Amino acid sequence: MSFSSAQTRLPSVDAVRTHQRVWLDDTRNRVLAGEHFAICNADDFEEVFTTFGIPSLVINYWNSVVTFSERKGDHYDAVLAEHGYVPNRFAHGFGTALDPSRAPWGGLPKPTLIVGTTRDEAQLRVTELWAEAFGCECYPLDFSWVSQFSHELPERWWEFHRDRSESMLDLARVDLRLEQMKGLIAHLEAITGKAFSLADFRAVMERLNEQMNYWEMARDLVAAARPLPVTLRDQMALYQVTWQRGTPENLALVKAYYDEVKALVAEGAGCYAQEEFRVYMATSGNDPMYHGYLRERHGGAIVSNRYACIAPMYARTIENDDPLRALAARQLFLFDKEPHWEVHEAKRWGADAIFGIEPEGAPPSRYSEVCEAAGFPYLGLPRDADDADIRARIDRFVDTRLNARAPAAQ
Amino acid sequence: MTALDVLRSHHADPHKAALAWKAKGGKVVGYLCDNVPDELIAAAGFFPLRISGDPDADGQAVRQYVDTLYPPDVTTRPGFATAMLNRLLDGTYGYLDFLIVPHNRNAIQAIYRSLRDARKAHPELPACEMHYLDKAWSSSFISETYNRDQVVKLKAKLEVWAGAAITDDALHAAIAVGNENKALLAKIAALRAATPPRLSGVDALQIIGASMLMAKADHNALLRDFLASADSLPERAGPRVFLGGSPIDHTRICQAIEATGATVVAEDHCWGNRSFDLPVEGPASPILELASRFHRKPACSITFPLSETVAGCARRAAAAAADAAIFYVMDEDWSQNWETPNEVRAIEANGTPSLHLKQQAYDGGDPSALTAVVAEFLAAVQKRAPRRAPAEGATA
Fold first, then answer.
1. From B105, B142, B341, residue closest to A179, measured CB to CB
2. Residue A183 and residue B344: Cβ atoms within 8 Å?
3. Is A150 close to B358, i.e. CB distance below 8 A?
4. CB atoms inside a 10 Å sphere around CB A194
């Protein structure tokens, strides 16, 4: 029941997709040849592994390969259920260790260690169970997004990341994280026989910042351009460069994307046939399933979402020649799902409306109130689906809130 | 009224003792979970009251005041957390002077932010000053020093709230009363783990629960009174059941199990035996000893490595000489979801058959349906094997 539409796929984004496939194959070959290999959570310890020259597979990325690229989520749900667990997408990677026979690559090789994440209790247990299934070590680091729980964020917190990130954090937590990171680094030195170079690590962090600069500049060009030059699908595909942050290869990939975006903007190229109105998605998902219908039926374009806007959150100025502390601060807080930030982004993208996910029958949400108060008509949909019910809700919203409106506040 | 009647009445009305304390001009400090050092609260001169939920509440206050604040993917929580948050929002705990929220499972620690944001958005909601008691979950010495600092910070906060320093004498006294309470509760645990049991699981849960709802010294007096005549308690027949899974702050699950004629001889959650298993050791430095226990005490069931949690569960089941184990895991209890299968395997490896109930309701759902499921399981167990003797040297 979905509308088809011709969308361009940018060569620079296809290069990212290709790079990921090559990286996966190359990593597998290196590990099979006896090199060390690690698994860790997203936005965790990747930069340190990069400095050690240890390929690290990010759990969320591997899960997305299993679930979305290979479409084996149902199989691994069944595998997890057979082992007594209520399935959960975060555990699909663990599922591939329980049943490697149908896993991408024929299953992952045994890692040297898995960094256990205490981002929440379930993730800690999944990483432990995964390590148990491999027969490898699980090394936990305390990793709680404390700012979301204990430390109130300042207003316009999204402007703090690069230079003032510690003002968003509990500094005792930063100190704890730093000590634990040093402990794991020393442990890795003992395991691998390699010395950790702070200078090399700083270079990784500086390259990461440069990588994020290009991504941010590209984002600003895409957001300001009319018509929209890059589909949300391609914007989201670029997120894959964050799986190996601060490598020369990934810096080059993002720079190539920036160059292509610049050229597209100069040409006035548009990725969608129409842009009668622009929608910002206050969600974490991919390009929603109803986007084709929205475009074909109403001429509306979904221009971006929160994950396509996240580049500046990764960059950190290194102060006092202490790149480890800069990373510790980054690890403790990346972003909050918070409506004032989403409004800020919706304005950047020139959106006429904001779509979110809202439970069926729930009272008006803070998201809805903040967005509406800022002048953005807000549509809370109960799910990402393209069915008659969702279409009817979209039709009603467009007819009553957008077609009969005065121009939205910008 | 017997001592047991009084203990039951405090469990049935968790506000009774705290309100009586307030009526005399005292102040009440609420806290969540079983790892907050309540001895510090008592030593500061406050009434420590553990927060519990109401299985009859529908969670309306949470849906109205909290779930509207955040996207739906960050507001999932198990029913027991919803129930406590609901009471903190709907005015039930409006008499609290202060509240301590520990960094335990996400659904618990999120209560701090949820209350803060909800009160900001709805100034009409009941409000009291809160303290976030952070905790590193990993087991290293680095984490232990961090956790010590958090206990020291809590002490300082309590002193601010009290307007006076907490003296070592006061702390020693509170620890002594707390340790006596744990020792007496261990005798309660032994009564129901005896062969045959002399106490039902329902009564044991009420007795244990009351220890966190009334002054420890008063609880100790009632325990001593009750234990003095414990020899005359009737023996209980029927299968001996170990209850694992999610924390349960009411007795309905236990009641449904014991309606089959079984006795829940031990359980593995923080409203039961686990709540009193770590006395404060050593008299030298009370604050360091409290900090050490805080570090060792699992945040919810979270401790690293998982094998320790699993071994602890299996050890408790073996010590109680359970004939069978039932794991009652609530919906959205993701911690238990990943722990229970290993616990089931460990317990079954010891020869104890298990029933793993997944995605269960906090309120227990239809009690007769649960009783029927348990009865069917226990009937199958009784056909399979004779009752086993308690493990040698095991302790509950």
1. B142
2. no
3. no
4. 14
Residue of A nearest to B298 (CA): A121
C-alpha distance from B9 to closest chain A C-alpha (Å): 35
DSSP track, A34-83: T---EEE-TTSSHHHHHHHT--EEEHHHHHHIIIIIS--HHHHHHHHHHT
Q: Do A365 and B149 touch (CB under 8 A)?
A: no
* DSSP secondary structure string for all residues of B203-267: HHHHHHHHTTTS-HHHHHHHHHHHHHTGGGSPP--S-EEEEEES--SSSHHHHHHHTTT-EEEEE
Total number of residues shown for chain B: 396
Residues 6+ apart with CB under 8 A from A337: A284, A306, B70, B71, B73, B74
Does residue A147 surpass a pLDDT of 80?
Answer: no
Domain boundaries, chain B: 3-168
Average pLDDT, chain A: 92
Cα dihedral: B24, B25, B27, B33 (round 10): 10
State the pLDDT confidence band at A410, using cuts at 50, 70 and 90: very low
Asked if B302's CB is within 8 angstroms of A124's CB, the reply is yes
Average pLDDT, stretch B386-396? 47
The better pLDDT of the pair A73, B300 is held by: A73
Nearest to A84 among B63, B71, B356 (CB): B356
Nearest CA in chain B to A118: B137
DSSP at A378: E
Query: Is the confidence at residue A20, as pLDDT, over 60?
Result: yes
A123 min Cα distance to partner chain B (Å): 9
Q: Flag whether the ipTM exceeds 0.90.
A: yes
CB B20 within 8 A of CB B6: no
| Number of other CB atoms surrounding residue A200 within 10 Å | 15
Name chain B contacts of A122, Cβ cutoff 8 Å: 334-335, 337-338
CB B304, CB A140: distance < 8 Å: yes
Q: How many whole angstroms separate alpha carbon A308 and alpha carbon A234?
A: 9
CB contact under 8 Å between B72 and A358, yes or no, is: yes
**CA pair distance B80, B59, nearest whole angstrom:** 10
Q: Which of A90, A113, A121 is the best residue to mutate to test the B interface, defined by the most B CB atoms within 10 Å of its own CB?
A: A121
User: What is the distance between the alpha carbons of residues B78 and A22, in angstroms, rounded to a whole number?
Assistant: 42
Instruction: For A299-309, write each residue's pLDDT tens digit.
Output: 999 999 999 88
Of A53-57, A305-309, B144-148, which gets the smallest average pLDDT? A305-309
The answer to whether B346 and B307 have CB atoms below 8 angstroms apart is no
Cα distances from B61 to residues B97, B115, B313, in angstroms, run 20, 11, 35
CATH, domain range B3-168: 3.40.50.11890
pLDDT tens by residue, B42-96: 999 999 999 999 999 999 999 999 999 998 888 889 999 999 999 999 999 999 9
Where along chain A do its domains lie?
1-13+198-410
Which long-range CB contacts under 8 A does B185-191 form with residues at least 24 apart?
Answer: B185/B211, B185/B223, B185/B273, B185/B276, B186/B276, B186/B396, B187/B223, B187/B227, B187/B230, B188/B223, B188/B227, B189/B266, B189/B273, B189/B396, B190/B396, B191/B227, B191/B230, B191/B233
What's residue A385's pLDDT?
Answer: 95
Element (H, E) at B21: helix B16-23
Name the packing angle between helices A248-267 and A11-32 (round to 10°).
170
**Contact present, A19 and A1 (Cβ < 8 Å):** no
- The reported pLDDT for the residue numbered A7 is 53
Inspect the interface and report whether the beta carbons of B103 and A118 lie closer than 8 Å: no
Determine which of A79, A80, A86 to mutate to test the interface with B (most B C-beta atoms within 10 Å).
Answer: A86
Whether residue A315 contacts residue A212, with contact meaning beta carbons closer than 8 Å, is answered with yes
